[in-house]
From TrEMBL:
Primary location recorded for the protein, binned into one broad class: other
Record protein name field: PROMASTIGOTE SURFACE ANTIGEN PROTEIN PSA
Residue spans crossing the bilayer: 204-227
Lineage: Eukaryota, Viridiplantae, Streptophyta, Embryophyta, Tracheophyta
Pfam family, one: Stress-antifung
UniProt source species: Salix purpurea
Coiled coil: none
Annotated family: Belongs to the cysteine-rich repeat secretory protein family. Plasmodesmata-located proteins (PDLD) subfamily.
């Protein structure tokens, strides 16, 4: 599965599968399109470091603030939604509203609608802003690149519908099988500057033993510190969800 690391390093996402010998294993990783190549590598390394916590399960999903990693025992590459595992994480209201709650909810619904339409128009990704009232509302939508257009639409529409129920919370994240969506009253999707972080690609080693479906991950100290800095810059690890059936 080290081919996923190489793909992420070259294009910010990757997928792979090993179907023989038994047991089968499928893996996928993708960064959000607003991350630079370096920030993507840092996020991927930190996410992969969490995979051993899911053992001895044969599947896992890890959502970080900037990337997603999944492995499973079946081909899930065109899976858009999963009612058993899709989730929404809602924040609390952070600021007093002089606007009515109804107006604030409408602004959240508007930015979710717009970012969904823009992502489908762009292909898989978009950011949007809804201005007005006390606070602007920002949103990001990202489909995984293995989905086709109809599958992406299905995921984003379902994610947006569930996410809108987070209002009047100041932020919310939809952690779905085929996509990720977030809104916040604070901007969170600015690109970071690559020169501010250090990353040593040679410090990352992944060993996969198919007989035990074991993942051994050694992340370099430099990569870990880099991700800690990245987390502070883009809002922290607000969307970490490990699913280990």
């Amino acid at each position: 599965m080290d081919s996923i690391q190489k793909q992420v390093g070259s294009r910010n996402w990757g997928s792979d599968s090993i179907t023989s010998p038994f047991p089968k294993i499928y893996g996928f990783a993708q960064c959000h399109d607003d991350l630079s190549s370096l920030d993507c590598k840092i996020c991927f390394c930190q996410g992969r470091d969490k995979l051993p916590h899911c053992l001895p399960a044969t599947s896992a999903r890890i959502y970080l603030n900037g990337c997603f990693i999944r492995f499973d025992k079946y081909n899930f590459f065109h899976e858009a939604i999963d009612p058993m595992n899709d989730a929404v994480v809602c924040g609390e209201p952070k600021h007093p509203l002089t606007d009515s709650i109804l107006k604030f909810k409408k602004r959240i619904a508007s930015v979710i609608h717009n970012v969904t339409a823009m992502a489908l128009g762009n292909g898989t990704f978009a950011t949007a802003e809804a201005k007005g009232g006390d606070f602007s509302v920002y949103a990001l939508a990202q489909c995984w690149n293995t989905l086709d257009r109809d599958e992406c639409r299905k995921c984003l529409v379902n994610a947006g519908s569930k996410l809108s129920h987070c209002a009047p919370g100041s932020e919310g994240s939809a952690l779905f099988t085929g996509c990720y969506m977030k809104y916040s009253t604070e901007i969170f999707f600015k690109k970071s500057v690559e020169s501010e972080y250090l990353y040593d690609n040679t410090g990352i080693i992944v060993a996969v033993t198919l007989s035990t479906v074991a993942f051994v991950v050694l992340a370099s100290f430099g990569a870990f510190i880099g991700y800690e800095r990245l987390s502070k810059r883009i809002g922290g690890e607000i969307a970490t969800k490990k699913q280990c059936p």
